[in-house]
Amino acid sequence: MKAKLCIAVVVVGAVWLVPAHAYRPFDGTDADVLDRGGMELEFGYLHYLREGSQRSLETPVAVMNFGLLNKRELVFEGRVRTLLSGNAEPHQTGFTDAAISLKQLHREGSLQEGSGPSIASECGLLLPVLSGERTGAGCAVIVSQHGVAGAVHFNGAVSKNREGSWERFLGTIVEGAGWGPIRPVGEVYAVRDSAGRHTESALAGMVWTARKGLTFDIAVRKARTEEHAISEIRIGLTWAIPAGRSPGPASAGTGE
Question: Which fold has domain 8-241?
């Protein structure tokens, strides 16, 4: 619920910092798309965030993915945020971070049961909402590699954020092979914008495949900006409905 012209330095991949482009529980994404007719719901039923003295609760955080023709995927996203403390009145609630994006798979690789890296791109718009958020836009490239030990997804992008500043995002997602249905996951990233703002973030968590087509996740994120520290807890699920068959697993190295 993450919307964020990439340059040659992003040979290893990219994604901008907009939840719509993420797959749970990350801010980045992988180089895979749904089959035509497939659907996937990424649902965060508890995101607790502390930024300096301000605390907020985000529930629900919803991302809907739809598989299209020619290895494309359409993504819609939004979240409901309640401010619990800080500068705003307590318990102020509003819909925020609305976005739409289109993802394109350019090279089938190890994530699609082939060999070598999988390569995709994603472009989208940050949509205005009643709470007064402005628009933004950006494009990205994602490169993923899957192997016996797990999967790694390299991320980086350039976008125009809601404040009107150009923003650069670079990050890496690592997914371990795990133990049975449970696998460890992690992500690190850095964001810089033309106004001088910056964020460095690290996330660690677990993903549990409960049954075919249904996974649950829990993660803790720590970050630092130029002004304050950030702590976050994320809990959610991913429900995948492949095209033409019953729900399939949202397994390691496959996501939005």
Answer: Porin (2.40.160)
All structural domains of the chain with their residue ranges: 8-241
Q: How far apart are CA 65 and CA 212, in angstroms?
A: 18
Chain Cα centroid distance, residue 90:
28
pLDDT at 16 (0 to 100): 33
Tell me which DSSP letter residue 131 carries.
T
- Token pair listed for 8: 């040659």
Q: Per-residue pLDDT tens for 35-80?
A: 999 999 999 999 999 999 999 999 999 999 999 999 999 999 999 9
Tokens found for residue 208 = 């549990």
- 8 A C-beta contact, residue 143 and residue 118: yes
Residues 95/80, Cβ–Cβ less than 8 Å? yes
Six-digit token string for 66: 């739809």
The answer for 189, left when phi > 0, alpha when psi is -120 to 50, beta otherwise, is: beta
Indicate if the pLDDT at residue 99 is higher than 60: yes
Determine contact, residues 230/222, Cβ cutoff 8 Å: yes
Task: Give the Cα separation of 187 and 195 in Å (integer).
Answer: 25
Contact, 117 vs 144, CB < 8 A? yes
